[in-house]
Design a protein that fits this description.
38% of the residues lie in helices and 16% in strands. The strands form three sheets. It has a five-stranded mixed β-sheet. The chain has a three-stranded parallel β-sheet with strand order 6-9-10. Helix 4 links the parallel strand 3 and strand 4. Helix 4 runs parallel beside helix 5. The relative contact order is 0.11.
């Protein structure tokens, strides 16, 4: 939560996290499949009960936050959620329902099947990104391979964004043609994960609509210098 709080304090309106469920269905805002890399505990999150996972400390200090707490702490902030495993789908739908966050989340996944199941589980339309097959079709369309009509159908069905890497296995993915094609279809382009400020500048020059980064102060400085920084204004509470 300290990292999310810092981003909000800097003025960010959009956060990004991954969603993992423990063995007993408690939903976490946490990137890794295991506790090993960034906490003082070990084991696969999906195989452990929450009573054990809650004892883990990130960097030896911070608890792993619940995704519902993230949604509930800043009710005006929008959250991009990568659904990492199928067991996270049902608790995610429940967390979004309890926090009434339907209009301020965007779902994504590296699995088309998992993403489709997550959409269905919500019980009502929510924002979601293209899945891997959709991104492949978008790239093909940008290269002139004739997928534009199909992608137009996806856009009309409520898939308003493509979230793509800068490159994949040595092949450039985010190109001017891809951004232009997505925009023609009514889709935004969000690029992950970019920490270098010169690369941020180059992507913004291409016209991308969003950048996911771990260098949040660096991105803020780049946007501010370009006159594109619009910081969050804290919500007044009665």
């Amino acid at each position: 939560m300290a990292a999310f709080s810092r981003a909000v304090d800097l003025g960010y309106t959009y956060l990004e996290t991954d969603a993992h469920a423990t063995a007993d269905g408690v939903l976490l805002a946490f990137h890794d499949h295991t506790l090993d890399r960034v906490t003082d505990r070990h084991g696969r999150v999906a195989a452990l009960p929450y009573r054990q996972v809650r004892q883990a400390r990130i960097g030896g200090v911070d608890e792993i936050p619940l995704l519902e707490d993230l949604l509930g702490t800043w009710p005006d902030v929008r959250v991009n959620i990568d659904v990492k495993e199928a067991p996270a789908i049902a608790p995610l739908a429940e967390a979004i329902r309890r926090t009434d966050a339907y209009d301020r989340v965007c779902l994504t996944s590296f699995s088309d099947t998992r993403l489709a199941r997550a959409r269905m589980a919500m019980g009502r339309p929510v924002c979601s990104a293209l899945g891997p097959r959709g991104v492949a079709r978008l790239r093909a369309a940008a290269m002139g391979s004739g997928y534009g009509r199909l992608l137009g159908g996806l856009a009309r069905e409520g898939v308003p964004c493509a979230q793509v890497p800068l490159g994949f296995r040595g092949v450039r993915v985010t190109t001017r043609a891809l951004v232009r094609t997505a925009h023609a279809l009514g889709m935004q382009v969000h690029v992950w994960t970019v920490d270098d400020q010169r690369t941020m500048e180059a992507l913004l020059d291409l016209g991308v609509d969003g950048i996911m980064t771990d260098n949040i102060s660096g991105l803020r400085d780049v946007l501010d210098a370009r006159g594109q920084w619009h910081p969050r204004r804290p919500v007044a509470h009665a």
